[in-house]
Amino acid sequence: MVPRHICIWYHVTHDIIPTNVRLHRINMIPSDTCRAMHTATDTLEDRLLACGQGRKIWHYTKTLLARMMRTIPTRIPDDWPFRPHFSIWPSQKIHRAILWLLANGLIFRMQQQSDLTLQDYIDLLHRTRWKLMHNKDGRTLVGNYLTVLDTN
User: Fold this and answer.
1) How much is the pLDDT for 64?
2) Averaged over 8-12, what is the pLDDT?
3) Given this model, what pLDDT does residue 123 score?
4) Residue ranges per domain, the chain?
5) Phi then psi for 102, rounded to 5 degrees?
6) DSSP labels for 28-58?
7) Buried/exposed code over 19-50 (b: 16+ C-beta within 10 A; e: otherwise)
8) For residue 49, what pLDDT is reported?
């Protein structure tokens, strides 16, 4: 069975999430507007980065990524959740840690509950990190890069 984060990542990177824009284009729903905001169109970018607390969650994620990479959050492009690309030093552990963080952000944002907060996201990251670190191979996969979660 394929893990959930791989399925979600595949759907996001291949842009096959059933957003209202996509469903409206094939005449499945009457409008392409976001159900939560009612003013913006429901695109993948809107759903993941802007709708609800998406902006706060993405800013927090960028801050964590910047700490991992020893840079500033403004140097992290907004398209990374959709098309991650790496031109950073060759450590595979940091690549895996970055992908772990991005995948958990996608999993959190793709949940259908609109009342989830930044604190819920932080709690999810701590729980999934705990599970990863208690896995036999968890620490060898990502090293100490996920300790950035402890600084909050």
Assistant:
1) 92
2) 76
3) 92
4) 4-15+52-151
5) -65, -40
6) SSS--B-TTTSSSB--HHIIIIITTTHHHHH
7) bbbbebeeeebeebbbebeeeeebbbbbbbbb
8) 82
